[in-house]
Write a structure and sequence with these properties.
Length: about 300
């Protein structure tokens, strides 16, 4: 795995995004390389699966890969903190591409994107409107808008929007901010609370232990800014706008976050003439974050996919 990493600041709307550029072996700055933007999951950061697993592996195959912290999260700028706004999340990808096209060693005609979990939904959404993206990969991708509209709002989106509006008014008047914690504090706490659902328990095991825990991963969201997500849909107009080559990777052990469902949906709906669905049999959403066997299944398809569509 590559250890040639550059830490850079990418200018976004009115703040900087913290990003890591993974460079391929034998990197020569006089050459022009294909590049891939790697988008982290909900509540995650650039040092987790998007960077240290998929970013590093793709760099080893000859791509320049850039993983970044979302606006309002990790080491990136933006206030208030811990905002998970899908509109900003998708726009962040375009700001990162703005940075890539200024680098002399990046070929602007060979840029792709990959996303993990919620990052997969954002990657798909950005590809529909930013034509600089030539190929998109989604690893256990989740449509965060669908998730917020359904289970994360208690299947009562209007009631949730009313509560968000009330909380935002309270904060605008100086009230205390309300931050939603997505996960229990530890696997032990999850067990004590009877939270045994597959995705929830495995997320806790990943994010709340040494396996995946990183300082920038906060697994939380500011409640007063969740309205945008409740009304958002990562796949809106995919039948018309998603024409770029698409590779969707899912595990066939589905959990409550819905990656299996969302993966099959976007594969079906995408207008892409070249699209591939990869099902990692026997594996779950969080297995695809970092476990060697399912990650290998994903990469065995993603690497030739990007080499075909971004070239060498």
């Amino acid at each position: 795995m590559t250890d040639n990493i550059q830490h850079v600041a990418v200018r976004a709307l009115a703040w900087d995004l913290a990003a890591d550029i993974y460079l391929p072996p034998g990197f020569d700055e006089s050459k022009a390389y294909p590049a891939i933007v790697s988008v982290h999951p909900i509540g995650s950061c650039k040092e987790q699966t998007a960077g240290n697993v998929y970013g590093s592996a793709l760099a080893d195959e000859g791509f320049v890969v850039i993983a970044f912290d979302a606006s309002f999260q990790g080491a990136s700028g933006g206030e208030p903190r811990s905002v998970e706004d899908p509109v900003f999340r998708a726009q962040d990808i375009s700001y990162v591409i703005d940075h890539l096209v200024t680098l002399p060693y990046v070929d602007p005609a060979r840029i792709g994107v990959i996303g993990v979990c919620g990052g997969g939904g954002y990657a798909v959404n950005a590809t529909m409107t930013d034509r600089r993206i030539k190929a998109v990969g989604s690893v256990t991708g989740v449509n965060f808008g669908r998730l917020m509209h359904e289970s994360f709002s208690g299947y009562d989106p209007i009631g949730a929007l009313d509560a968000v509006a009330e909380q935002r008014t309270a904060e605008a008047r100086g009230g205390e901010r309300r931050v939603t914690q997505y996960l229990p504090t530890s696997p032990e706490a999850a067990e004590e609370q009877g939270l045994t659902e597959l995705d929830l328990s495995e997320a806790t095991e990943y994010y709340r232990t040494e396996r995946g825990e990183k300082p920038g991963g906060r697994t939380e969201g500011l409640f007063s800014r969740q309205g945008s997500a409740i009304g958002w849909d990562a796949f809106h107009r995919a039948e018309v706008l998603l024409t770029r080559p698409l590779c969707v990777v899912v595990g066939d052990r589905p959990g409550a976050f819905g990656a299996y469902r969302d993966g099959l949906e976007i594969y079906r709906r995408a207008a892409s003439e070249d699209k591939e669905l990869v099902v990692a049999e026997g594996f779950s959403h969080y297995d695809l974050y970092d476990q060697p066997e399912p990650v290998k299944i994903a990469l065995d398809h993603l690497i030739p996919f990007y080499k075909k569509h971004l070239g060498r």
